[in-house]
Amino acid sequence: SIATVVSVFNGEHSVGSQVTVRGWVRTRRDSKAGISFLAVYDGSCFNPIQGVVPNNLNNYQDEILKLTAGCSVEMTGEVVESQGKGQTFELQVTEVKVVGWVDDPDTYPMAAKRHSIEHLRELAHLRPRTNIIGAVMRVRNCLSQAIHRFYHERGFLWASTPLITASDCEGAGEMFRVSTLDMQNLPMTDKGEVDYDKDFFGKEAFLTVSGQLNAETYACALSKVYTFGPTFRAENSNTSRHLAEFWMVEPEVAFADLDDVAGLAEDMLKYAFNAALTECREDLEFFAQRVEKTAIERLEAFVSSDFAQVDYTDAIQILKNCGKKFEFDVEWGIDMSSEHERFLAEEHFKAPVVVKNYPKDIKAFYMRLNDDGKTVAAMDVLAPGIGEIIGGAQREERLEVLDMRLEEMGLEKEDYWWYRDLRRYGTVPHSGFGLGFERLVSYVTGVSNIRDVIPFPRAPRSANF
Ligand code: 4AD
Ligand code: MG
After folding, report:
1. For residue 389, which ligand has an atom nearest its CA?
2. Is the CB of 432 under 6 A from ligand 1?
3. Which keywords does this Swiss-Prot/TrEMBL entry list (predicted)?
4. Disulfide engineering: 120 pairs with which of 19, 108, 127, 163, CB 3.0-4.6 Å?
C-alpha cells in the first residue's frame, strides 16, 4: 500500500508488511558490501525514511547507482525495525521506480551543501525542499489549524471579509490601489488630476489592510466571529517584521470590553503554542539545534507565564526611568518603536505584556475614547524577542463620540455610513484584535526574518515569484 513517511515512523504499518513511499531522494550512500542506502523525504515529517537497497535489484547498476539528491522515486519494501539510532523503522527495499531525474546534478541548486537563508529566498521555488523551510511550513500549518480549532471550540464563526475594499481601516494611508483603468489612457478631472473615482468599475478601490470593520458588522449580529485571511500594507518598510502581504487573524466579540479580549488573546496564543509543542516536536527540536537554542524553553515559558498588563502612561514612565539609552527618545505621546517594546517585554517584565490605553492621537478612529478624553481603549500585546504581535481595541460604540472622532481625523462621515448604522441600530460595546500570523510563526520557530516564514514573501524588492 502507499504510505507516507510519517505513517511508517508512527508504526501504522506492521513490521513485515510491504509499503510504497513516494518522495525525493535526499542522499544515497553505497556500502562496500554492495548495499545502497537511500534517504527519501516526502515532507510528512522532519526526517526522511531510509531504504536499504540490495544490489540484486535489476535496475541497481543502471539506475539506483545514478540517483542523486532531488530525484523523485517510488520506493517499495518491507517495513523493518531500524538498526540506526533515532529512527524507528526503515524499508528493506524490493523495488525502486525512478519517477523523475535531476537534469544536471552538478548544478542542482539544492545539492547537499548548506545555503544561507538569504540565498534560499532567491530560490523560492526550491526552498521548500530544505529542512528549514519544510519545518517552518509544518509549524505554520499546525498553528493555523490550532487557531481555527480554538475559535471553533469557543463558538466563534469564521467570517470571510473582502480583500477589495473602499475603506482604510487603520487610516494610515498604506493601501494598494486596485484599478481597472487603462494606464495608457487615464481619465482626468477638470483640474487635470487622475480621476480615481472611476477606478474600480466606477468606484475607488483598494486592497484591504484589515478585515476588522467588516468583521464588526457580523459581530453586531452573530456575537462572536473571526477572520483569517491575507491583508496588505503598502508601507515601504524593509525590516524583518514587515511584509506587504501578510495574514491576519481578527476575532471580534459583541458585549466584550478590552479586558475580555486581552484574556482571549492570551488564551489563543497559549493554545496555539501548546499545539506546536505537542504536534511539531521534531521540527522545534531542529529549530532549537540550528536556529535558536532556546526555541523550546521559550515557548514553554510563554505557555506557563501570566501576561503582564501595563497602562501606556506607566510604560512610558518605566522607559524614561530605566536608565537605558534608546535610539528614539521617550515622551508621552510617542508611538513606541520596537526597541521600546522589546525592552518592556524582555528586560522589564520578562514576560509577554499587554500595553493598554494609548494616546488617541497615535491610534485609529474606531477606538473607544476613555473618560480622560486623551486616551483610547487600545491594546498591543508585546512578546519577548519580537515586540508587537497583536494590536486591538474596544470599539467606539457611541455614535456622537464616533462622529466627533471622524471629524477630528478629517474623515468623511458619508464614507462610513454603514459603520455608523451599526451605532444607530442596537449598538453594543464590542472589542477585537488582530494577530499578525507571520509574526506568530516567526516567534514560534525562532526564524527571525518574517520573509522566511511565508511561502512567497511580498516585500520591497522581494516578489519574484
Ligand atoms: O496593529 P494593526 O495595524 O491592527 C489592525 O489592523 C486592527 N484592525 C486589528 C484589529 O483590531 N482587528 O495590525 C495587527 C497586527 C500587528 O500587531 C502585527 O502583528 C501585524 O498585524 N502586522 C504586520 N505583520 C506583518 N507585516 C506588516 N506590515 C504588518 N503590519 C501589522
Ligand atoms: Mg498595531
Report:
1. 1
2. yes
3. Aminoacyl-tRNA synthetase, ATP-binding, Cytoplasm, Ligase, Nucleotide-binding, Protein biosynthesis
4. 127
- Statement: the pTM of the whole predicted model exceeds 0.90: yes
Q: State in Å: Cα 301 to ligand 1 middle.
A: 24
Instruction: Answer yes or no: is the C-beta of 213 below 6 A from any ligand 1 atom.
Output: no
Three-class secondary structure assignment of 106-167: CCCCCCCCCCCHHHHHCCCCCHHHCHHHHHHHHHHHHHHHHHHHHHHHCCCEECCCCCEECC
Q: 84 or 406, which is more confident?
A: 406
Q: In whole numbers, what is the pLDDT of the chain averaged over residues?
A: 94
Check if 391 has its Cβ closer than 6 Å to any atom of ligand 1: yes
pLDDT tens, position by position, 401-430? 999 999 999 999 999 999 999 999 999 999
The C-alpha cell at 151 is: 475559535
Cα–Cα distances in Å, from 453 out to 1, 127, 157, 247, 437?
34, 12, 27, 11, 10
Residue closest to 45 by CA, chosen among 14, 87, 80, 92: 87
Which CA distances in Å does 233 have to 121, 169, 316? 21, 11, 28
Which H or E run includes 393? Answer: strand 387-394
| pLDDT over 60 (residue 388) | yes
Residue with cell 501504522: 12
Determine the distance separating the centroid of ligand 1 and the alpha carbon of 250, expressed in angstroms.
Answer: 9
In angstroms, the Cα distances linking 103 to 25, 40, 53, 75, 129 are: 14, 18, 23, 20, 17
- Report yes or no: 130 and 120 within 8 Å, Cβ to Cβ: yes
Q: How far apart are the first and last CA of the chain?
A: 36
Count of CB atoms situated within 10 Å of the CB of 1: 9
Closest residue by CA, ligand 1 atom 30: 242
pLDDT of residue 199: 67
Q: Average pLDDT, stretch 258-266?
A: 98
Query: Residue holding cell 508504526?
Result: 11
Closest CA to 250 of 269, 231, 226: 226
pLDDT of 464 strictly over 80 = no
Q: What is the pLDDT of residues 391-402, one digit of tens each?
A: 999 999 999 999
Q: How far from 217 is each of 225, 420, 430, CA to CA, in Å?
A: 10, 10, 11
**How much distance in Å is there from the Cα of 164 to the middle of ligand 2?**
21
Other Cβ atoms closer than 10 A to 453: 25
- Kindly tell me if the per-residue pLDDT of 461 is higher than 90: no
